[in-house]
Amino acid sequence: xxxxxxxxxxxxxxxxxxxxxxxxxxxxxxxxxxxxxxxxxxxxxxxxxxxxxxxxxxxxxxxxxxxxxxxxxxxxx
Length: 77
Description:
single chain; mainly alpha; 4 helices; 78% helix; elongated
């Protein structure tokens, strides 16, 4: 089903599957992190859906990027 869908529809379907998994890890950042991860190639996203360890590692990487960005913004004020 996923392979037959247009690219944007594939991203939508993947996002709908990823969001609840990410929400369980970081409820307050789930939307932002899901959006960040949807920039990744679909084959890697599918791998993350099948591998909780891989998903967790990418989510933590995204959280680190967000925190670094927030710290940078705070320092420039």
